Amino acid sequence: MMTFPSGDDFKTAFSETFSGLNSRPVLLFCILCAAAAGVAGPFGTYSALTPLARMAYWGSLVVLSVPLGYAAYAISLAFFRDRSLLVRNASAVLLGSVFITGLVWVETYFFAKATNSRPPPLRELAAFVFLITALGGVARHVIDQFTQRQIDHTRKDAPPEESRPVSAPALLPDACQPRLLRRLSAQWEGQIFNLSVEDHLVIVANNHREERLRMRFGDAIDEMDGVLGIRVHRSHWVAQHAIDRIERSKGRVFVALTNGARVPVSRTYLPALERYLRD
Q1: Domains of the chain and CATH, by start
Q2: Tens of pLDDT, residues 94-109
């Protein structure tokens, strides 16, 4: 039975979802879509609006529709965090269609009034918005699945621990143990090597074991107090003692850990990682 999310659930979902809104790919996507639609003038806007009005119409639609789509996904995530990716993405498409249809209808009505033209029927606008939103939802679902497979593939392809002799890390004194260890099972042994996010679960790993915790990634990093480490990606944190070397392959950067795992490094965090290792 589905339970209504708490205020903290909504806050966490919106924080996780909107963290990538100001990224360069998203901004570039908005600019390209607005420019292309403004020049092409689809759905009758080429003849109904002047070039300046077309750019204003499509630019404002794109700029406002993207945050509405993100909000729809955040609400879906808050309600269906424990469900599959398909359920979350499908519900986000339906909710996003409602939000964006309202936006398109209001903006189209005012532009039609300003140009003395007749706006298209609401059901026609709703069908158009649902089609575009559904295509975006399918693209997101494919990307999410691909990302998950890449994470799994990276871990499966890591060389076996026996092929890379590594001395067992010494345990920290009890007083210096990170708080995150208290959340792990009694079977956990040794220090924590790295943290990552998988489908909104935090994965805690070392050279012996992996465990999953349902908590915010930022909180998990905060509970690694007393352990030197650095965030190398929006979804990855590594402990200093676990870093073996930095690897570069086909324009991508990875941190190779002593347990054989390869953790991707994003461009955003690469300069900080390089300074961290130099110091």
Answers
A1: 7-155 (no CATH), 166-278 (2.40.50.1020)
A2: 999 999 999 988 888 8
